[in-house]
Amino acid sequence: MKNFPEHYQELIALGIAITVRCDGCISFHVHDAMAADASAEEIAETVSVAILMGGGPSGVYGIEALQALSQFQERATVPGR
Where are the domains of the chain? Predict the structure, then answer.
């Protein structure tokens, strides 16, 4: 996927992780999206779309993604943040 910036690839992977309900994948892709300079707003929009596509159960996993985002921001564990 050379044609897409790295943070787009990570956002796509995050959306998929939420819809397939993969706990470990969610935090991994939130971290890597942030490291690739995805904004908090882009991550939140990705979560919204994943919930739309994945239905109610994806809401639980979307919240996990937002919690991971918050924790990474608080701890400044992502390079450049």
Answer: 6-75
Q: Which fold has domain 6-75?
A: AhpD-like (1.20.1290)
Predicted TM-score (pTM) of this structure? 0.88
- Which of these, 32, 45, 40, 37, lies nearest to 70 by C-alpha position? 40
CA distance 43 to 11: 7
Contact of 36 with 6, CB cutoff 8 Å: yes
- Dihedrals φ, ψ of 39, to 5°? -80, 160
Residue 12, Cβ density class (10 Å: 0-12 exposed, 13-18 middle, ≥19 buried) = middle
Q: Tens place of pLDDT for every residue, the chain, 81 residues?
A: 578 899 999 999 999 999 999 989 999 999 999 999 999 999 999 999 999 999 999 999 999 999 999 999 998 755 554
